[in-house]
Design a protein that fits this description.
Blueprint lengths: L15 H12 L3 E2 L8 H10 L6 H21 L4 E5 L6 H9 L3 E6 L2 H14 L8 E2 L17 E5 L9 H15 L4 E7 L4 H7 L6 H16 L9 E8 L4 E8 L3 E5 L2 E5 L4 E8 L3 H10 L3 E7 L5 E7 L1
The structure holds N,N,N-trimethyl-histidine.
Length: 318
């Protein structure tokens, strides 16, 4: 995969899939760009900042669940598996799981190569005896994992309710792809955010400090930088809404006035109030989550939640 921009700030080639998704997304009605494109270097940094916000309960809640379940998890998973993380890994959750399940290797998979290599370095320093094998790839499709772990049983790790970014149909396809990638005897440890009061959900995606707004609007800056765009940053407002019918938080970039701009030489116009839908964050009740896992080819083995029932962690087997 081509890297968007190096640490030196030099412009380099843009991922052709980013260009295709942005142009198609701006042409479609309603306009929508897949959330995966948030995570350039700056976007990944802003997301890390979101996880520390007082309103954003998922990260600290899931981390606490993982810490609490460690002894039970170890019994259920056994030791010596290769832990395959879908996403480049967080500085807090990943070490909790790695120290708990005594893995033979750690394989983080991510499309953001820069961030992947950096977080891998940090982890390798913390676990000097553990082979860390970063794998730059799009995990939405079945993958051939590094040969070094071909024979080892796998524990897939998909924390953070990242699955919530997908519609249930796409989530089901992803779970099936993971099952294929992870192979015989695999297990999956997955976090899913629960349905709860809108007054808790919305502030988690529209925080007082404006970090989530900056995360959303960073997509405009990325488009302008990488796709030669002229989108007026000051004309877009961050919106987070709870779609109760579809059990999801939606993030949008709303035009605050009539605007015209170009991206990659193509002209676009948006009327005041029109939005670009940039993210879905689906929430799952207990039965919803188990049905999703089964539909995706996984059998739930155990389920844990925090005392307030905000977030849930599932262990499933292929
Ligand atoms: C990384 C997809 C789990 O949906 O909560 C956080 C992304 N977006 N705040 C989520 C996100 C805005 C996050 N996931």
């Amino acid at each position: 995969m081509l890297k968007p921009e190096g640490e030196d700030g030099l412009r380099s080639l843009t991922d052709p899939a980013f260009r295709a998704d942005v142009l198609a997304g701006l042409e479609r009605r309603p306009r929508a760009i897949p959330a995966r494109w948030f995570y350039d270097r700056r976007g990944s940094e802003l997301f890390e900042a979101i996880t520390d916000l007082p309103e954003y309960y998922p990260t600290r809640t899931e981390t606490a669940i993982l810490e609490t379940i460690c002894p039970t998890l170890r019994d259920l998973v056994g030791s010596g598996r290769a832990v395959v993380e879908f996403g480049s890994g967080s500085s807090t959750k990943t070490p909790v799981v790695l120290s708990c399940v005594d893995p033979c290797a750690y394989v983080p998979i991510d499309i953001s190569g820069d961030f992947l290599r950096e977080s891998s370095r940090v982890l390798a320093a913390r676990f000097p005896d553990l082979p860390v094998l970063p794998f730059e790839a799009d995990f939405l499709k079945p993958l051939t994992l590094p040969a070094a772990v071909a024979e080892q049983p796998k524990l897939g790790f998909f924390p953070g309710s990242t699955i919530g970014n997908m519609t249930p149909a796409m989530a089901c396809d992803l779970l099936r792809a993971m099952r294929e990638s992870l192979g015989q005897g695999a297990m999956l440890l997955i976090g899913m955010d629960r349905i709860k009061d809108e007054r808790v959900l919305v502030p988690a995606y529209d925080d007082a400090a404006g970090v989530t707004a900056a995360f959303n609007r960073n997509l405009i800056e990325r488009i302008n930088r990488e796709l030669d765009g002229t989108m007026p940053l000051d004309a877009f407002r961050h919106r987070a809404i709870w779609n109760d019918d579809r059990a999801r938080i939606e993030m949008h970039l709303e035009a605050v006035r009539d605007i015209a701009f170009t991206v990659d030489g193509r002209a676009f116009a948006m009327a005041a109030g029109e939005t670009i839908h940039t993210e879905n964050s689906h929430k799952y009740g207990p039965r919803d989550a188990r049905i999703l896992l089964r539909t995706g080819g996984w059998t739930p083995v155990a389920e844990w939640t925090d005392p307030d029932g905000l977030f849930a962690v599932y262990l499933a087997e292929a």
